Every structure is written in C-alpha cells, then in structure tokens.
From TrEMBL:
GO cellular component: cytosol
Residues that hold NAD(+) according to the record: Y119, Q182, N205
Co-factor(s): Zn(2+)
Catalytic activity: L-histidinol + 2 NAD(+) + H2O = L-histidine + 2 NADH + 3 H(+)
Residues involved in Zn(2+) binding: Q250, H253, D352, H411
One GO MF term attached to the UniProt entry: NAD binding
Residues the record marks as active site: E318, H319
Record keywords, A-Z: Amino-acid biosynthesis, Histidine biosynthesis, Metal-binding, NAD, Oxidoreductase, Zinc
Record-given protein name: Histidinol dehydrogenase
Length: 419
C-alpha cells in the first residue's frame, strides 16, 4: 500500500496517573457517597445542586425549551431506533425441550437485566442522540429499571434540555445530574441516593472509560471505548467531496479521532485531500477537525479492493464505509467492523442520529470480538435442563468416570447417587 497522507503513530500514554486518579475518585464515592458526588459536581462542572436526581418538573420544563421541529426530530429518530431494536429483539428467542438423547431436555431463557445506567456524555457537545441510542434498546429488551446520567451544562445546575427530553422519550425511569468517573462509581457501588445497577453502557472521556474498566466485575459494561474512527474504502468513481465530508465528520469529534481512506485510485486520494482542505475553510469545528485530521488522518492507495478488505479486517474500525461501484462483492469478505455503511447514499452520520442502527460502537480494534450496543446488550441467555429417571441413571456412569478422571470424587459421588 502506498501512503499519500500519513498519520502519526498513537503514542502509548503513561496511564499510571490516570489509574491512580480514577481509583481515588472511586474510593471517595464508595467511602463518602453523595457528599463526594456533590463535591465533584461542583469541582468539575460548577454544579451546586443539592438533589442529584432530576425531577419531573425539570423534565417538563426541558420540553418547553425545545422548538416544535427539535421535538419532532427527536421523536422521528427515536421511532427508527426503537423500530430496529424491537425487530432485533424478535430474533433473540428462547429454546426449550431440545433433546440430545432420550430423556434429556435442554433449553434456555432470554432474560433482561434488572437495571442499567445509560451514561450520556456532555463534554464538548451535548450528545443527546446517545441518550436515544442507549435507553431505547434497553426499553426494547425489557429492562425494568432504566437509569441515565449526564453532566450538567458547565456552570449551571441543569442537564442540556435536549438531552433530558431524549432520555424521557426513550423511557428512562431515573435521571441524575452527574458525570465523570464519579458517576460510574456511584452506579457501580451505590450511594445514599443512587441504587447500583447491573450494567453501565455508553461512551465517555478517558476518566469515564478508566472508571468503567476498574468497576467492571462489580458491574457489567458494554465495552471499553476509545476515540472515534472511520475507515472509508473507495474507488475512483466516488465523490471526493462526499468522502472528505465523511472523514471530517469523524475528525470533529475530538483531536484524537481518526479518519482513514483506502482507495484504488491515487488521483482520487489526492482530490480528497484537496476537498478536505476546502471544507476546513468553512467548517465551524475546524479547530478540532484540523488537528485531528493533520495528526491522525490517513490516506492509502491499494493495489486492489481485496487489499483494502484485508486491511479493514485487520484494523477492525468502528465505522466502515463502502463507497465503491459494487459493494455487494466486498461485503461477505468483511468480518471486523462496528457498523457498515454501504454505498455513497449511506452516510455514516445517518447512523449516528436517525437511521435506526446504534452509534455506540467498539473502537481500538474491539470489533474483532464484539459488536456495538444493541438490544442483546441488555439480555442474558440462561440455560436450563431436566431429565427422566432413566436418562439420569444412564448418564450418571459417564459423568462419574469423567469426574474421577479430574480427581473430583465428590462430583463422582453426586453422579453415582442417581444410579
């Protein structure tokens, strides 16, 4: 592969200070509960509110802040996300009375987790779309207690109004004005005002990510996420302007985001570089997008689309776009990606907001072993079995011999008792 725009290699950050800082925050929350949460709220977000839980009155007031079009847009996006999540739920089915041999009956139940926390970032932008993406599939899965949290708008005591409305539309039962590593600790271990949950989902900054890593085991998590990334595979017949727009849509997330183009046409690759430069002249978020693109943007020229497929499978990108004349020829060969966007008509940003698939996706090559958040994230497949007396007596000698082979005589005795 010929590189015509090279990205800097991500340096391995010394995370010792991060780990220690987050461990300290978790320890404070576990030890001092709500008092620690209020102190962190004031320290990091300038929030002095006494009650961490958002009231119904605050939610109703948030609706009044939205215009008719804003509310209609949220409802339309929620409809598509919910429709897809409910369709996915129908594909996850219980199994009963499977019999591998006479008298042995096996099966499984599909059981939703009892409770979850949807972490919705505030940070540079109010990511209200994330509220829809997290809570909607939880609702479709049948989670009984859906909680959500987000940091307040800095210097105020309130979560962004659109985020509050999105949480409410998606079916959140409890909303808390809280962010950062302290929020992850609170929903993992519980405090006086916050009951712990079974799983925490959602993206966040490196402190949130590290807190999820440290609290995993005490609580379930979706995955450990890193900076956003997109990989575009394009031939010479694609639109340079469209590809440039898609690359910059990822680059504007933050300065560590990564946009990659693989193309079979060197002239096209160079035209994309020119198109990126033109858009950066008018892009409101050019300061962040420019730094991200200059540092981590990459364009490579491949000898064939099969070479691009091989690279994509090794890289396992969060978002993968196929902007080629015959995408159907490549799809069966692609196995590692968070979400796939097929053809020039299918912008990655459509999936970010409103087409219906989820935008909470694995990064940093995690797509090799997991997909993104979906209705199944909130479901457990729990097995069961039963046997007739004849089947029990028949299988007992087999189990007894295997148990003795492992040196577990108590296991053997439990089997022999059924003879």
């Amino acid at each position: 592969m010929k590189i015509i725009k090279e990205a800097q290699v991500r340096s391995e950050e010394d995370n010792r200070n991060l780990r220690e800082t987050v461990a300290g925050i978790i320890g404070e929350v576990r030890g001092r509960g709500d008092a620690a949460l209020r102190e962190y709220n004031e320290k990091f977000d300038g929030c002095t509110r006494e009650s961490l839980r958002v009231s119904r009155e605050e939610i109703d007031a948030a609706y009044k802040e939205l215009g008719e079009q804003e509310l209609a847009d949220l409802k339309a996006a929620h409809h598509n996300i919910g429709a897809f999540a409910n369709a996915q739920r129908q594909t996850v089915k219980p199994l009963d009375n499977f019999s591998p041999e006479p008298g042995v009956f096996l099966g499984h139940r599909i059981i939703p987790v009892e409770s979850c926390c949807c972490y919705v970032p505030g940070g540079n932008y109010p990511l209200y779309s994330t509220a829809l993406m997290l809570a909607t599939p939880a609702k479709a899965a049948g989670v009984k207690r859906i909680t959500a949290c987000a940091p307040v708008v800095r210097g105020t005591g309130h979560i962004n109004a659109r985020t509050l409305v999105a949480m409410d539309l998606a079916g959140v039962d409890e909303i808390y004005a809280l962010g950062g590593a302290q929020a992850i600790a609170a929903f993992s271990y519980g405090t006086g005002s916050i009951k712990p949950v079974d799983i925490i989902v959602g993206p966040g900054n490196r402190f949130v990510t590290e807190a999820k890593r440290q609290c995993y085991g005490q609580v379930g998590i979706d995955f450990v996420a890193g900076p956003s990334e997109v990989l575009v595979i394009a031939d010479g017949k694609a639109s340079a302007k469209v590809v440039a727009a898609d690359l910059l849509a990822q680059s504007e997330h933050d300065v560590n985001a990564k946009g990659i183009l693989l193309t079979t046409d060197e002239a096209f690759g160079k035209s994309v570089i020119e198109a990126v430069e033109e858009e950066l002249k008018i892009l409101d978020t050019a300061k962040i997008a420019r730094q991200s693109w200059d540092t981590f943007g990459e364009i490579g020229v491949v000898d064939s689309l099969d070479e691009a497929v091989q690279y994509a499978n090794e890289y396992a990108p969060e978002h993968l776009e196929l902007n080629v004349e015959d995408p159907d020829a490549l799809i069966p060969k692609l196995v590692n990606y968070g979400s796939l966007f097929i053809g020039q008509n299918t912008a990655e940003v459509f999936g970010d907001y409103a087409s219906g698939t989820n935008h909470t996706l694995p990064t940093l090559r995690a797509a090799r072993y997991t997909g993104g958040v979906w209705v199944g994230t909130f479901l457990k497949t729990c097995t069961h079995q039963s046997m007739t007396p004849e089947a029990s007596a028949r299988i007992a000698p087999l189990v007894s011999r295997m148990a003795h082979g492992e040196g577990l005589s108590g296991h053997a005795a439990a089997a022999d008792a059924r003879k």
